[in-house]
Amino acid sequence: MIHFENIHKTYPGAQPLHVLKGLDLHIEQGDYVSIMGASGSGKSTMLNILGILDDYDTGTYHLDGKLIKDLSETRSAQLRNELVGFVFQSFNLINFKNALENVALPLYYKGVSRKKRHAMALEYLDRMGLKDWWHHYPNELSGGQKQRIAIARALIAQPKIILADEPTGALDSITTEEVMQVLSDVNKEGITMVIVTHEASVAEKTKRIIHLKDGIIESDLFNIPFNLQTSAHHEVSRV
Amino acid sequence: MFDLDKWQEIWHTITRNKTRSFFTAFGVFWGILMLTLLLGTGNGLENGMKEEIKGFATNSCFFFTDRTSLPYKGFRKGRNWNMRNADMVSIKANVSSLKYLSPMLFGGSSDNNTVRGDKAGTFRVRGCYPNYAGIEEQNVIYGRYINEVDIQSVRKVCFIGKNVYEKLFNPGEDPIGKTIRSNGIYYTVIGVGSGLSNVQIGGRSDDMVVLPFTTMQRAYNQGDIVHFLAATAKDGYEVGLMEEEIKTIIKSQNSIAPEDDRALGSFDISEQFKMFNYLFLGIKILIWIVGTGTLFAGAIGVSNIMLVSVRERTKEIGIRRALGARPSNIITQILNESLVLTAIAGFVGLSLGVGILSLFDNIINNLPPGNDIFLRNIIIRFDVALAASFILVAMGMLAGLLPAWRAMQIKPIEALSEE
Fold first, then answer.
1. Would the ipTM clear 0.85, i.e. be above it?
2. Chain B contacts of A95, Cβ < 8 Å?
3. Cα separation of A140 and A97, whole Å?
4. pLDDT tens for residues B363-392?
5. Which of A18, A148, B332, B335 is the most buried (most CB within 10 A)?
6. Cα–Cα distance measured from residue A34 to residue B86, given in angstroms and rounded to the nearest whole number
7. What total number of domains does chain A contain?
8. Structural domain of residue A88, as residue ranges?
């Protein structure tokens, strides 16, 4: 599903910042991966490239068998719409749209009719247990509710992967639990899930934990509770 | 092209941000309101002016004599002279651009010179040809104007102004065939009228007793003298040229030095009207400049506020981009928002402007006549309103262009990382 081959990324500037230094990463369909690392380790950059929000300098990135390189803005927008669902730390809901309209928005850009996308949005809200809240605006909802709406929005266009950037960063421990449960349920349906987090407790819930350090993978191991054998390719990076 | 869904999305964004939309739209609303009011008032002023000069042949010129200022053909300078009937014959025979020629005589107006029974009033007396009515159009209330037969037979008849009638007759009384006395001589009334125009030659027509020219020459012992001469050019002929032609004929027939400018005075009324026309052209241009300027300022305001709003909405736009909005989606969204806002604001402004104008027009039309208001028909024409609407839409597009371009430049990652 996701194939990074020797990805390099440098942010230009007075002092160019070499963020990703030859990243190799392979994530298969249905994987449930968490990415950890200190700030500055390159995890956000990696997620942006994964989500076709940012470009990279050298190497190759294949998503769902398509080479993602030097795409036009229009093409990358289209691929984002088709393949990727985003969940953000700060939810990123549109304030002047109610829950239903927020969830339905990706379908608008897909060209689905208003009636149909509202019906689908209601269905996804129902799955998140928020059907009765469809007419509420984001500022009338709790953090957990907002994040579940964001997840519904990420799911509605039926993407191949969900990219979650610190999805529980703004939530308390109980709602974190709830949201992680929802994400696990989504993954069980076969959707690839990549979560960037710095909370070990969140990473523990995923099947595979990747540690980034200084732009390369430090470790990549299968999570014991999920996989009874030790990691098949447990690597420690050479610095 | 017409995508209901797209418009719903745009309408939604506009109505969910009421305050912002209102202030954005206000500039344009104000601009078009001002333009409408200015145009309407300008039109009203012009119509009012045209109303004043209506019924007066604007392509006319007038001649009158004075003492000569140069000696010529043995005559000393300072000689008194008059135009004669013979001059009229020569002018009619030789000036091809002539449409109407009306020699005139003026009589005195001593106190209570016009009498009928026990009623009397002070009015001027004038001798005219029938075609004077072609120069200063008459609104005939009773009877008829002087005609060719009156001239030929030197009839002792008169055509009186409206005010003369009101002074000498009882209201509603038929004046035709009645006799009045003017400056000691009796005339039969053949008609009553009032001048259509407010332009006047030698006094208002309404306060005038008009006699057939020939009758007046005889009654006042004027021989073949002409006091004053009015001439109108045919359509499409230059009045100034005709004026020169007539002056040349009159001067040569009366032994006046051709270069003597004092002896034969004249004025070309078309020059005055030309000036009016330029004046109104000037006013119109000014109104359009000021009006479109105001409108333009409104559009700049829209553009400015849209720019601010694009900054404010960076995050929203970033989210939309991340969810799969193409740059073209964002551009059309911002452009259309601007267009819809300006269009609505503009049409509200236009309607309100037209409403205010018609209200004032109504008030003015219902004022009693004789007031000094110089405005008539303060309305704007449909094609002008249409032009204004076109300008409006163009400005809406223009106003949205820069903000839309800015919005397109927004990179989703930068927008999303902005808190």
1. yes
2. 316
3. 12
4. 887 777 665 666 777 777 788 878 877 887
5. A148
6. 118
7. 1
8. 2-235
